[in-house]
Specification:
binds succinic acid; 2 domains; Aldehyde Dehydrogenase, Chain A, domain 2; alpha/beta; six-stranded mixed beta sheet; 483 residues; Aldehyde Dehydrogenase, Chain A, domain 1; single chain; seven-stranded mixed beta sheet
């Protein structure tokens, strides 16, 4: 708890982490040191039912406010998040592990959704439709769905909340988020800033619990919840979607990925290597849209691999709260074991281990930046979501076959390729069965674009003008008997 007092604004967390003795709680750990940081409330299903009723009561009044007034509150929230960037980054690094500069980047990225949707909330236009007969006028209006609930992941503890909360609030919904049990502190701090910005406490709630299953069941079975948004694994997303069918809830799901990263032989090699490193090693590889498998054309394979290995070897591994660290710890022991297992299996199937391959000796909670070469397309590491700093590189020859290889997966979240041939670029971009395609670009996340996947990678879009639609219903009004 003492570290909270060292924040510029300890009030971001003091209340949330001062647990009443009658309240059940659970501990939050620093994944680098494995030491407890503090405890947060472990709310029961009954307690969260009260939160849902309070949200339902608060929502109509919020919906009645003008879009401009809601936008002003959101902009004030944005300003407060930016002003608290250093504290928020510190909290995030402590509970999640990502390097401080990446955490600061995520605070800005998370805040950008608040600003974007503050504006988009003013543009939830309906339309006038030419009527099929005289005496009628037809218009559509947009209305908030009501109470929306979200279950958010540990890998982006702020951005995955604001990407859902900001459009919900801008649309006039109430919003309840259950953050991952590993990273509740960033969520609680960001909610505190929302309250300081005048967003009512019962309207926007962060409910902490270590029982993900029970909360998923509650959210999807509660008749007051009209919308559920989830970021996480495909398996859990499928379960939530099946459960949500009972109450006919609107659903958006951002699920697993298996992003291919293709380098054609006409690519700018230096740009491709730079993009590959940024894309693969962001958040220690624990990102749904990280490059999962690399395909490099035979003509440039050796050159790419050499440049890539030289630069990956320069990445600094360690405690994210220290200066100049590029790769922090993995989230927990299970993740470290899984990474080790994936490398061993890949090598058994013929991959050559060129760099890393195990826990870092000086920083045992970190996994060494790892490069595997001569990986076959059907090697198991090319089919599973890796979620660790491991880059498997496969050789290819046939520019048509490579599209089949990219699409040879149940996933369809992000994909990337590098080429300078405009005909090839257009053809490949159209053929890739993915919700997002980075072309000569390894970092594609921003608030203005619709983020989301196809196939088993999800349903719905977050960000862009599409993101707010997920929290709105379209109502059609037919005016008859007009002169
Ligand atoms: C994710 O990993 O789910 C989100 C990554 C991003 O928004 O860039």
């Amino acid at each position: 708890m003492n570290w909270i007092k060292t924040l510029n604004s300890p009030d971001l967390l003091l209340d949330a982490c001062s647990i009443n003795k009658d309240q059940a709680s659970y501990q939050v750990f620093n994944p680098y040191t494995n030491k407890a940081l503090c405890s947060v409330a472990n709310l029961s299903v009954e307690q969260i039912k009260h939160s849902i009723s309070a949200a339902q009561t608060a929502q109509p009044e919020w919906a009645k406010k003008s879009a401009t007034e809601r936008a002003e509150r959101l902009m004030s929230w944005f300003d407060k998040v930016i002003a608290a960037k250093d504290d928020l980054a510190k909290i995030m690094t402590l509970e999640q592990g990502k390097p401080l500069q990446e955490s600061a980047g995520e605070v800005e990225y998370g805040a950008s959704f608040i600003k974007w949707f503050a504006e988009e909330g003013k543009r939830t236009y309906g339309k006038h439709i030419p009527a099929p007969k005289n005496g009628q006028q037809i218009v559509t209006i947009k209305q908030p769905v009501g109470v929306a609930a979200a279950i958010t992941p540990w890998n982006f503890p702020i951005a995955m909340i604001t990407r859902k909360a900001a459009p919900a609030l801008a649309a006039g919904c109430a919003f309840i988020a259950r953050p991952a049990s590993q990273t509740p502190l960033s969520a609680l701090a960001i909610a505190e800033l929302a309250y300081q910005a005048g967003i009512p406490k019962s309207l926007f709630q962060v409910v902490t619990s270590d029982d993900a299953k029970a909360i998923g069941k509650l959210f999807t079975s509660h008749p007051s919840i009209k919308k559920i948004s989830f970021t996480g694994s495909t398996q859990v997303g499928q379960q939530l979607m099946a459960q949500a069918a009972e109450q006919m809830q609107k659903v958006s799901l951002e699920l697993g990925g298996n992003a291919p990263f293709v380098v054609f032989d006409d690519a700018d090699l230096d740009a491709a290597v730079k993009g590959a490193i940024a894309c693969k090693f962001r958040n220690a590889g624990q990102t749904c849209i990280c490059a999962n498998r690399f395909y490099v054309h035979d003509n440039i394979y050796e050159a790419f691999v050499q440049k890539f290995i030289d630069q990956v070897a320069e990445l600094t591994i360690g405690d994210g709260s220290q200066e100049k660290v590029d790769i922090g710890p993995l989230i927990n022991e299970q993740a470290l074991d899984a990474a080790e297992e994936k490398v061993n299996t890949a090598v058994k199937h013929g991959a050559k281990l060129k760099l890393g391959g195990q826990r870092d000796t000086d920083h045992p909670q970190c996994f060494a930046a790892t490069v595997l070469t001569e990986v076959a397309h059907d090697n198991p590491i090319m089919t599973d979501e890796i979620f660790a700093p491991i880059a498997p590189i496969c050789r290819f020859n046939d520019p048509d076959e490579i599209i089949d290889w990219c699409n040879d997966t149940q996933y369809g979240l992000a994909s990337y390729f590098y080429s300078r041939d405009i005909n090839k670029i257009w053809k490949v971009a159209q053929a890739l069965e993915y919700g997002m395609v980075g072309i000569n670009e390894g970092l594609i996340s921003n608030p203005v674009a619709p983020f989301g996947g196809v196939k088993h990678s999800g349903i719905g879009r977050e960000g862009g003008s599409e993101g707010i639609e997920e929290y709105l219903e379209t109502k059609y009004l037919c005016f008859g008997g007009l002169g």
